[in-house]
Request: fold
Amino acid sequence: MGQVNLRKAAIIGCGFVGASSAFALMQSGLFSELVLLDAVREKAEGEALDISHGLPFARPMDIYAGDYADIEDAAVIVVTAGAAQKPGETRLDLVKKNVAIFKSIMTQIEPLDCQGVMVVVANPVDILTQVAIRYSGMPESRVIGSGTVLDTARLKYLLGANLDVDSRSVHAYIIGEHGDSEIPAWSCATVSGVSLLDFFELRGYHEPRYIMDQIADDVKNSAYEIIEKKHATYYGVAMAVKRICEAIIRDEKSILPVSVMLHGQFGIDGVVLSMPAVLGKNGMEGLVPLRLSNEEQESLRASANTLKEIADAEI
Reply:
């Protein structure tokens, strides 16, 4: 069995998301070694050089371009490779292109003895996490997707702004698909233990459902808006990648809504989607049982069915 170097990470794919994630991890102090892989090796070499030139302002670290043999002992393998979402394109529109790319990547990982945790970030993340589970040879618990970690951050940010409280005091989740069928789990949402509806009332919102629906729409459409304006999203997801890596490397047992395989929860079986999960050094260590309303459960099953149809057809 291979050894894991807890101070080493690998990033496969050096586009906007991969490079931004590498930059965020360089600044985080979590790792002392970072290997970058890209289909165009010069791209990985250029990003490694560029990011390395910031090291005198950060912490000592070895950042370099490598190949698949270099990732075997990485504690975290972040996979961002794939075609980017274009203006007007949904995440699910990327399926055919990125499933093919992912299968080729996973067939190169499968012969290795990777004992770390794989974090899938490319879109559609739920489908591609399922591809990674099937073809990487790694156990389910050590293959997760970035899921709705960023969507949840967007939700907390917007709720914090509307309620005039620190977004870190907002406890709420987006669950299901990282995409158009995602669900805000309103029935579980609180602000430091106070139910969300009660807190809206404290702030003078006596008909909060309208603003909650507006916030949910803004969260769902925020990627489209950013892509329309600047053609890609990458800073927010890079911070989400850093947060997931922190939970793994520090063995925090933090609860984050990542893409994981469900086995019977809420009547969903054999589908990867986002649910709050305990994250630690071994990856996903268990799901958190949310108390969802009947309507939320129905929406979650509908989201799962959307993903299952595509996964059955494409994987």
About this structure: The longest helix spans residues 208-230. The chain has a mean pLDDT of 95. The longest strand covers residues 269-280.
